[in-house]
Known about the structure:
This protein is α/β, with parallel strands linked by helices. Helices cover 38% and strands 20% of the residues. Helix 1 (13-26) crosses helix 11 (303-323), helix 5 packs across helix 6 and helix 8 (197-210) runs parallel beside helix 10.
Amino acid sequence: MAKIRIGIVGVGNCAAGLVQAVQLLKESKPEAAKSEKHPEIGDYRVEDIEFASAFDVSSNKIGKQLGGAIYEAPNLLHWTDSVKDCYVEVIPSPVLDGVSDLVDEKVKPIRNVHSQEKLRQDIVEQLKQTQTEILVNYLPTGSQKATEFWAEVSIQAGCGMVNCIPVFIASEEKWAKRFSERNLPIVGDDVKGVIGATIVHRTMAQLCSDRGVNVDRTYQINVGGNTDFLNLKEAARLKFKKISKTEAVQNVIGERLAEDQIYVGPSDFIPYLGNTKIAFIRIEGTMFPGVPFNMETRLEVNDKANSAGIVVDAIRYCKVALDRHLGGPLVEASAWLMKHPPIPMTDHVAKKEAEKWLNNAHRELITV
Ligand SMILES: NC(=O)c1ccc[n+]([C@@H]2O[C@H](COP(=O)([O-])OP(=O)(O)OC[C@H]3O[C@@H](n4cnc5c(N)ncnc54)[C@H](O)[C@@H]3O)[C@@H](O)[C@H]2O)c1
């Protein structure tokens, strides 16, 4: 069975979740195997994911093997105590705008060891040497420059990309075109968790739309206790996260809500929650014959399980596209797996379209 050789950009909690999830499946842990709903995508199983390279800026992680670095502070994830076959060394990445002031003390970044250009050359060389096929971008939210650096590196090194974060690459025309021209696939942007706040909120909004009731106003408040949530306390880094999360709900709500009638945002950092995320979602509406109603959901979920369950699928879609020599944004898979895809679809339609794409080797990708 062919393997999928991936490179990790940002060895944080999401990366720790991915590495440990793959390990649990390799060990055939019954709970992990039972909860894997897509045992094969194309011909690929989750166990076929191999970690070929890894990059970070943290002095706690650089120089360590990935299998050890995923347990270093400020990571918090322990689904299994050790992982095997994860011997790649974590290599330095340029910091650029990756580390906010609020997390600087925890991440302890190593800055300016080499020039950006030297780092770029070393990284491209490393990706080629390690035969990395797909880069998985797990940089902190707000890392616009760093994500663009890695998108460029991906194109230069001939890698596909899974963009897990709300910096718009797959859904941004300029970048979509660059990936298309180089015939490299990209799935993005911003992971839509398995049972995350976005999919639950979309499902509630879709229900209203399907049942023919008006949504008048809605909010979604999220709290959590990991570095992702701490980073999001810096308002300037939130801009595209807010757009990504808000549009994901607006897209299925029926009649678009005025800006002051919808609030969707990561809202606070509560340290003791760790990787547990709690979301409070409320919809207020009007049903026939002009009678008001409201509904609320409280979701409590491991944020990193939410991410890992989607990323193992996104990686395999990307690999199938590589095998088929298809480049550019995978619009169907992105609509199914990501919050801010190039072409938004309802979740029901996106799932069907992604499966159709998978089952039809000769179908051309929709271009953006
Ligand atoms: N359910 C989810 O967890 C979910 C869903 C959607 C999107 N995301 C996004 O995924 C991303 C990763 O989340 P996380 O919880 O792993 O964050 P994290 O803070 O745990 O990890 C980020 C990692 O990136 C490293 N880093 C910082 N700047 C860097 C640079 N310039 N180059 C290389 N590495 C750098 C940090 O040292 C850290 O190891 C975030 O942007 C988050 O918003 C997560």
